Amino acid sequence: MTTNSFHQAERVLHEFPWLAGRVSTIWNGIDTAQFKPLPRVTDPGAPLRLLGVGTVVPIKDIETLAKAVALGSVPVAIDWAGKQLDTDASRGVVARVDASLAASGRTEGWRWLGLQQDMASLYARCDAVVHPSAREGLPNALCEALACGRPVIAARGADHARLTGEDERGFLFEPGDARSLADAIAKLAALGAEGRDRLGANARAFAERMLSLDASLAQYESLLERIAAKP
Q1: What is the DSSP letter of 51?
Q2: What CA–CA distance (Å, rounded) separates 50 from 81?
């Protein structure tokens, strides 16, 4: 059996311990020719620009991000790229986020971008990608951001620690904890552009090594060879 995240493999083995030794994890491959570093288009004098990606649903925990913006002392601008669904749950997320931002006087720094097609250019326009949800095994948005040479801020959980490294490519925060997220944003801001570029270079090197289509294919080929070699 093959999973696309170590988190999912752990869940499988928890439910089916007799599968021990029969579960392999191979991360999804990212097209690193499509998702690649582009010239930075952010204004050096502008607030730290963060990009969130995902359909606007409760599992994304966008509300924690809005609360972190209210708590933080660092000026930030947030773009959220993702479809807003015609459902009570999706509309409820937007309403609660907007209310939280209005209460803190931060509405001007937040943009709902809706569904986007050219994600590579969006990554180029941000300083980092923020992912508040801890309930997804291997978020494509984080993988794409790393391939584009952007640092990431992610909730501690799933495979996020493996993606960020020990503060090598980004930072973790405690899931659902707005103060922890605000602190992670402040930590990223304190690095300055040069420090964020260093994390971004680490991110791209990691993506080429671990997240590329070639890396994924090589792991599948190795798995097939091991299976074929078994008596």
Answers
A1: E
A2: 11
Q: How far apart are CA 138 and CA 227, in angstroms?
A: 25
Q: Could you give the residue range(s) of every CATH 3.40.50.2000 domain in the chain?
A: 32-211
pLDDT value of residue 45: 74
> pLDDT by residue (tens digit) across 108-133?
899 999 999 999 999 999 999 999 99
Angle at alpha carbon of residue 141, lines to 138 and 145, rounded to 5°: 115
User: What's the pLDDT at 72?
Assistant: 83
Of the candidates 3, 28, 10, which has an alpha carbon nearest to the alpha carbon of residue 146? Answer: 28
* Nearest by Cα to 63 from 71, 122, 164, 172: 71
Concatenated DSSP letters of 43-85: -TTSPEEEEEES-BSGGG-HHHHHHHHHH-SS-EEEEEESPBP
pLDDT digits (tens, 9 = 90+) for 52-68: 999 999 999 999 999 99
Which amino acid belongs to residue 108?
E
Single-letter code of the amino acid located at 60: K
Pick the CATH number of 32-211 from 3.40.50.2000, 1.10.260.40, 3.40.50.720, 3.30.70.260: 3.40.50.2000
Distance CA 230, CA 98 (A): 57
